[in-house]
Amino acid sequence: MRRSALILVNERHADKRFTDLPGASADAQHLSSVLRDPEIGQFEVTVESNKTARAWRKAIQRFFSDAERDDELLLHLSCHGRKDMRNRLHFVAKDTESNMLEATSVSAEFLADRLEESRSRRIILLLDCCYSGAFSKGMRSRGEPDADVSETFQGNGRIVITSSTSLQYSYESEVLSRRKGQPSIFTSAVVDGLRSGDADLDQDGFVSVEELYEFVSRKVTEQIPEQTPTLSAFSVEGQIFLARNPKAVSSQSDQLAGPDPRRAVQVTGAGRRGSGYQVTGDVVLTAAHVVSEATSVQVRFLTEEGSTRELPGDLVWENSDSDIALLKIADDPGMGGPPLAEVSPVRFGRITQPVECEALGFPRFTYPALPDAGAATAYRDAHHALGRCTPLSHMRTGSLEISVGYPPLYDPGSGRSPWEGMSGAAVWSGGCVIAVISEHHRADGLGQLVASRLDRWYGRLTPAQISELSELIGLPANADQLEQLPLPEGAPQRRRVRRWRTVFGA
Length: 506
Hints:
The chain is of the alpha+beta class. The protein has helices at 23-36, 53-65, 101-104, 108-117, 185-196, 209-223, 246-251, 253-256, 288-291, 457-460, 463-473, and strands spanning 3-9, 44-49, 72-83, 89-91, 106-107, 122-130, 135-136, 139-140, 158-162, 172-173, 206-208, 230-234, 241-244, 264-269, 272-280, 283-286, 297-302, 308-319, 324-329, 349-351, 355-361, 379-381, 383-390, 399-404, 426-429, 432-439, 448-453, 483-485, 503-505.
């Protein structure tokens, strides 16, 4: 899937009956910068500035005809707009002549036809189209009465955001419009919402088109109450995501990218070994059956230098029905490693269809069979399990089935599973924790694991217990607040973080 943007702007006109728009070049510069940003828009951007109508038509046709079905397209127009005698909308290019409008401009019908012919199912139009005339209170109008685009732009999977109601009054400051480097009010709001991340209204890390519209509408009307941007959506299924929130990317990269090896731990207690994950600064999530009978528990971390640090863990919460437990740990500066308070809280999700998943734990099959293996020479290594979760299996038990892509090559027998020690490992998908590894049934083969699925906790735990988990690890108050996976179609992909080989004492 490609994410492509085409920005068409015009600030100078051969026909001096059209006033120049020095801010249009700034529109292109600022918008293209934020759309190209790999932490925000991730778009491939093409800018056509101060070109002829023929050049614009060719660029538009190429842009839409080259797209594939799953490509996401964004077209931004910053220019004058005019209507002909039959009330049809036209976009003014460098060589447009006001008395030869139909022959020298780009008509809205031409643009609509190219949209109709495009294979892309996700198309976004941002129309910051200005018209000459009509001043009010020191503001120059960029609109004209009754320039309604709703009839022209119709079809599947299209969203149109205009700078004002029916393109009526898209105001631009008379002073600012004559100063180079200053974008229009509408485009300024678009750029600000994306660059700052403030358009991510629900703070889920992504900016949807609807969220951007709400943000822009509020910003524009705060400056000019008479101007109200509009949004029209045609045959759009689900949400279309326009960008990532850069603040979420920078401050929450660990939680967005899946398991952080620095936070995956080995848990030991009462002769049992398991795995766990540091979900907050001082709380580790693990499986209840690993620690429920232990009088003391040890939590083992790996530092960035490759050494280990071992901290005592206090069992502060457990539930055998869901097979989950929480351990409280206290920082020990003398053990090295980053302070515990520096970690970011994880995000929690639920799956509605099969998804790719991963878990990082310490299973028995990583324990080497060395001839002289003693406490000082034998190690239980970490295993990064990659697989696929299927939500419709094990519906009666309410557990999650995980098909592991690279299972252990053999079963050593002796009545013990090679996956022993993996219990308690957090299961991740789409940057969210969705389950906790709980069992391996040897009869199912070496490639199948069972996990306690997070969304089923709400049916097994009391409201008071859910409230306790909310307080301890930030679990949402109800299942509907969990992030739904897989990610909505068109959402920017979450990035991965670095991984390194981790070795722990057995």
